[in-house]
Amino acid sequence: MVTAYDYTAARIADAAGIPILLVGDSLGMVVLGYESTIPVTMDDMVRHAGMVSRGAGAALVVADLPFMAYQVDANEAMRNAGRLMQEGGAHTVKLEGGVAIAGTVRRIVDAGIPVMGHIGLTPQSVNAFGGYRVQGRTKAAARRVWDDAIAVQDAGAYAVVLECVPSPLAKVITERLTIPTIGIGAGPDCDGQVQVFHDMLGLFADFVPKHARRYANLADDATAAFRQYANDVRTGTFPTTAESFTMNEALLADLPDG
Ligand code: KIV
After folding, report:
1. What is the pLDDT of residues 172-208, one digit of tens each?
2. How far apart are the CA of 23 and the centre of ligand 1, in A?
3. Whose alpha carbon is nearest atom 2 of ligand 1?
4. Per-domain residue ranges of the chain
5. Distance between first and last Cα of the chain
6. pTM for the structure as a whole
7. Among candidates 129, 182, 123, which has minimal Cα distance to 152?
8. Residue of 57, 127, 135, 167 with fewest CB within 10 Å of its CB?
9. What distance in Å separates the CA atoms of residue 39 and residue 3, rounded to the nearest whole number?
10. Are strands 181-184 and 192-193 parallel, antiparallel or unpaired?
């Protein structure tokens, strides 16, 4: 699974055979320029889910319910999950949390909307965590992550993202759950992995998480390309006649002098 936030990105990832595209609320940082996912709205998510679903091809499109779209009550959560599907074209939704939101997961699932869970480091709770910290390192914290995993599974989630959880804990959870785990910063033993599009492609230099692997340096390539373009314009080597359109110049004879 990789994140995608627009039509072009979805086309590219789908062409590579990536089976699941996540319209993550991480778009708050890498697309909208916020410092966290907290300011992201339902309207943001619906708009970007629509872009991705139009480019997704065969891929499954999962869209995040953003902060405060599901915490107030289960009815609002269901309405918002429905919007991501009806207006955004998503196939399934993802929401953060375990024991605390299990009832809401159950209501959404019962309404016919497949839910992917997300536990461990849940970025919408960054202020409660006091920062982006690995979760589950102590005995009590590991037990909390475990309880969250069981809660979302029992509530009917079809898969669960484990974010920033120590590998041994992720391994145990993966072995004992009956639904697949998808890891990000959760080691090699999860059933699947998810990465953020911009981290993988080297498009976002503000912050590169320890768990991200960079497969390309597109920001550097793009900067070099724009520099070259600006230079070509300044030196008159762009555009050439091959990059321009011709006409019968006699037709210009009667144009006024100005
Ligand atoms: O929003 C996002 O990109 C995510 C992934 C980090 C799993 O939720």
Report:
1. 999 999 999 999 999 999 999 999 999 999 998 777 8
2. 8
3. 24
4. 2-216, 221-252
5. 59
6. 0.96
7. 182
8. 127
9. 18
10. parallel
